[in-house]
Amino acid sequence: MKILVLGCKGQLGRCLNDQLVYTEHEVIYTSREQIDIADFEVTKSKILEFSPDLIINATAYTAVDKAEEDQKTANLINHLAVKNIADICNQLECWLIHVSTDYVFDGNSKVPYREDDQTNPQGAYGETKLKGELAIQASGCKHIIIRTAWVFSEYGNNFLKTMLRLGAERNELSIVGDQIGCPTYAQDIAKAIVVIMRRLKSEGKIIGTYHYVGEVGCSWADFAEDIFKEAIKQGIIKNKPKIIKISTSEFPTLAKRPIQSKLDFSKFKSTFGINQSNYADSIYSALEGYEKLKHKK
């Protein structure tokens, strides 16, 4: 299978590189320098030239607060560019695997969100990501949309790496304790995508939207505690900073965050036969990977 990965320099893109190296597929990795998805004509020309069997779209405008101030760019990348890619996939009759977010929901549910629950994004980021989803569905292309949440890894900018940096600078950290989500290791998302790829010959039977998230729901403050505990075990840090749980109202942001954004995993498991991302193992692996990358520099 010929695979085109868009966004190879991001967290998921780099994890896909790590995981696809173990397969026999022909993989083309592109960053913004090779394919700027905001340029529709160039994107179409290059994708038609590559003529892939599958496109994995790991690109997105993920700056949640910035999206409130620059809604035009967020919409361009998360919606209009995605529509363009989906239309190209439909023309080529190739598959599209696209990554979306828990922010398409409002966060008011008392139970984990299922794929067919009512969407109700509360900000520009979630709204533009939802529009991207709808554009893919309307295009008629063969697609898998993966909604995930609280993505972290040894790569890029994410909560885990922010905690390690702040923990080295401060003895005390105030972290939101009333937002609940499912931290998800990007390497596990990449592994899940490899599993999905084995099923693409099933054609229309698996087309649709799926939730893939970590197995444990927790607050940002609880997530931070567990990161620091494991970092001490691995000798990455010597002392754990004191974590003070604060409310969302005490940490105002431009964009409204979902208070409860746990996603139901059962459809993904029943369709593809794999388990959720293991929370403890994921933190361990991400920190181990972080240390290895640090020593490579």
Structure description:
This protein is α/β, with parallel strands linked by helices and 297 residues long. The protein has helices at residues 11-20, 40-50, 66-69, 71-92, 124-139, 159-169, 186-197, 220-233, 266-272, 279-296; strands at residues 2-6, 26-30, 54-57, 95-101, 142-148, 151-152, 172-176, 180-181, 184-185, 208-211, 218-219, 242-246. The protein has a six-stranded parallel beta sheet with strand order 2-1-3-4-5-10, with helices on both faces. Helix 1 crosses helix 7 (186-197) and helix 4 runs parallel beside helix 5 (124-139). The longest helix has 22 residues, at 71-92. It is globular.
Broad shape? globular
User: Strands of the biggest beta sheet: in what spatial order?
Assistant: 2-1-3-4-5-10
Please state the structural category.
alpha/beta
> What oligomeric state do these chains adopt?
single chain
> What is the C-alpha radius of gyration, as a whole number of Å?
19 Å
How many E strands?
12
- Biggest sheet, in brief? 6 strands, parallel
Q: What is the averaged pLDDT score?
A: 95
Order of helices and strands: EHEHEHHEHEEHEEEHEEHEHH
Q: Give the termini separation.
A: 34 Å
- CATH fold call of the domain at 2-157 and 183-214 and 261-278: Rossmann fold
CATH architecture of the domain at 2-157 and 183-214 and 261-278: 3-Layer(aba) Sandwich
| CATH C-level of the domain at 2-157 and 183-214 and 261-278 | Alpha Beta
Count helical runs: 10
CATH superfamily of the domain at 2-157 and 183-214 and 261-278, by name, is NAD(P)-binding Rossmann-like Domain
Helix share, percent = 40-55%
Strand content bin: 15-25%
